[in-house]
Amino acid sequence: MRWLRRWRPTPGKKLTFLYVPDDDDVRQFRVPQAAFYAAAGVLLLGLGLIGFFGVRYLGALSEGREMLRLHGENEELRERLTVIETQLASLDGAMAEGRQVQERLRLLASLQPIHTDVFDAGVGGPLVLDDSGTLPEPLDENLDQVSGRISQMLRQASIQRESYDEILTTLRAREQIWARTPSVRPVQTGFITGRYGRRMDPFTGQAAMHRGIDIAAHPGAAVRATADGTVTRAGLWGGYGLLVEVDHGDGIISRYAHCSKLLVGPGQRVRRGDRIARVGSTGKATGSHVHYEVMQNGLPQDPMKFIIETDVIVD
Question: Which among 180, 209, 235 is the end of a domain?
Fold first, then answer.
């Protein structure tokens, strides 16, 4: 094996290199100094360029790999956005069906329908897929569309929730009014023997105002409250005999007279259909019956205006 042992400069601007092989036969080489430094400079420049472009190449290679990674992530994100758009379309259809049900409920509750401009809640619009069924470029615009669509649907859901709350509040209020409004007969069986209005008084033979209706029934038959309310009177009351009076609120009062027995007392809460007394003939009565009155704001009303017959369907 041969190798360079040492070198030394010589006069005349030349460099002398001593080469000592394994057999110790020393050889000399003389190289002009300028040529040596020029070659060294070229070598260093070459090494520098190799290093520079090597670094650039490695950087470009790294950037390429990063670009491939980002491209893969973008493709995956685009596929996920496509799935989300499909789900949003399905949810949009379900919300449309819910809106139709809501509008029918608002109609039943006598509420004004929600205007389309209000329900659309501002921004939005469906995403547009390309021919391959995927989201087109640019991806950031599609992300903005998805975000805007979700925000819009959240606002629409909030509007629907408030609408349902309004419907429920209205229907509950009407339910309470309905529960407090006399609407059934005080006895389940029997015959109307006297109607509201002027008639001949059977005791005096003179014309008099009959402020209720008379329903003939078997003695002891159940007398029931015709609506929810509070008992304000329960006892003997002149010609009414044994009487129950129920305050239903909103200025409406019902009275049940000529009873044989009272089953409730003053201050007691009753509901429509509760038994409050039994049919009798106490007081100014010619036979077993219930005298039924309805008062509104202190004025007598025809009870027949409030009674809904059981074979009538109200829709």
Answer: 180
